[in-house]
Task: structure prediction
Amino acid sequence: MVAVEKRVWTPEEYLAYERASQERHELINGEIRLMSGASEEHVTIVINTASSLHSQLRKRPCKTYASDLRVKLKGNASYSYPDVIVVCGERILEDDKFDTLLNPTVIFEVLSPSTEVYDRGRKFEFYRALESLQEYVLIAQDRPHVEHYRRADDEWILQDFDSLESTLTLASIECALTLADIYEKVDFSDPPPPFSIQSGTPE
Result:
């Protein structure tokens, strides 16, 4: 990829480019950001989380997605690729390409050193504007630590978990995840290297 002069991309321009690209990009306030590869720990946590949720929701009208389904962020020229998504009930998609979700119920993000500030701050601000979103979960990859945000009317209530024996209860989808399951086969003795979402635009 060759960077060119930075400019503001419309959602239509972004989607046309993204659907033709072999790489993944997020759109943040009209700026394209190239997403780099994830660490082994990151991928393991995503698979563990998505697998457990998929198993629990198998016989129910809910679906679990891992990493590759876009979410359009309400009221912004922005799109993201959450690490794990659960949507219950009718799925609302942006168009007939069926690759951009508008109504996630629960979103999970696995934190990295370079994306943690964005995931906690501006990205969560974008997510909170989604009326469908009921719960937001941040998962550390360098230690057992999970932050669970739950919507309660106009407020978001935070609960922290730091023990592998702890259980995260997701009331909106009636699921439970133990930290031991989330972190299965994750080796905390070898810290993951930093990775980032980089700014960039196509030729």
About this structure: Residues 40-56 form the longest helix (17 residues). The first strand starts at residue 25 and ends at 28.
